[in-house]
Design goal:
With 40 residues, the chain is mostly helical. 90% of the residues lie in helices and 0% in strands. It is built from 1 helix and no strands. The longest helix is centred in the middle third of the chain and has 36 residues, at 4-39. The radius of gyration is 17 Å and the shape is rod-shaped. The chain starts with a helix and ends with a helix. This is Aa3-type cytochrome c oxidase subunit IV. The chain crosses the membrane at residues 20-39. Keywords: Membrane, Transmembrane, Transmembrane helix.
Length: 40
Amino acid sequence: MTSDNNFDAAEESYARFLSLLKVGTVATIIVTILVVVLIS
């Protein structure tokens, strides 16, 4: 487990990871739509 000192840093890292995951998901959807439109 993380100590109390590291908990804030861990929480901030996790929040950054989640926002990066959301941005990555949106980017993947946009690229997928673009590829499908180009192929069809």
